[in-house]
Amino acid sequence: MKIELIAYTPTASGVCCDAAAICTASENGYRSLQHSLASGHESVLEHAVFTFRVEGVSRVTLAQLTRHRLASFSVQSQRYVRLKDPELVIPETIRSSDFSAEAESSMRYMMNLYQRMVAAGIPAEDARYVTPQAVPTSLIVTMNARELRHFFSLRCCNRAQWEIRQLADEMLKLCRKAAPTLFENAGPGCIRGNCPEKRSCGKPRARSDWD
Questions:
Q1: Closest Cα partner for 186 from 7, 2, 12?
Q2: pLDDT tens track for 83-115
């Protein structure tokens, strides 16, 4: 998995401070922003946007990621881009289990079947139906700061699946470097107080996890 922050609002924190200051007719934008965030008035964060290049995530994670609908996605096409010999994304729980060899063999068989079908003239857009969800993909995703904070609150949680949690963790690290004022307290609910989940994992995370 590879994640890059390839573009973002250059003055992200400043723009959001200005927006908060306008709302309250204040001359102290930073204080206004802190008050807005503490009060749950996060619409001022929508003025800052961040764009990431993501490579090597599975179709499983892509399906979870695109459920966050207040975002823009450009995903590598399986219709126009033929799959050659991709490095499959296989969870450690499978790799370390008694099913490891059987699972990988099954996936490789399906990928080989895909190649043979395409070589026989079956369109790639149809042959892809036999490929496993472990096939990696690449995409560009853009979210505003408000949606990113919501995304991090859900996907940086220990109860999120490992792959999308890893993705969210890396994205949060990049956001904290680019705009620390906006993402200082971003992450799962446990870093701001009590766990909001019905069943806590019992292992609260710390802000230092994203340093």
A1: 12
A2: 988 999 999 999 999 999 999 999 999 999 999
For 2-74+138-210, CATH number?
Answer: 3.30.1360.170
pLDDT for 16-26, tens place per residue? 999 999 888 88
Q: Taking the model in full, what pTM does it have?
A: 0.92
Residue 124's Cα: distance from chain center in Å? 27
Cα→Cα distances 47→8, 44, 86, 163, 180, Å: 11, 6, 38, 29, 16
181 within 8 A of 13, measured Cβ to Cβ: yes
Q: Please tell me which residue in 146, 155, 176, 205 is annotated as part of the active site.
A: 155
Does 155 qualify as catalytic in the annotation? yes
Q: What residue ranges do the domains of the chain occupy? A: 2-74+138-210, 84-130
Q: How far is CA 34 from CA 51, 153, 184, in A?
A: 24, 18, 11
Distance, CA of 191 to CA of 193 (rounded, Å): 6
What are the CB-based long-range contacts (under 8 Å, 24+) for 200-204?
Answer: 201/157, 201/158, 201/159, 203/158
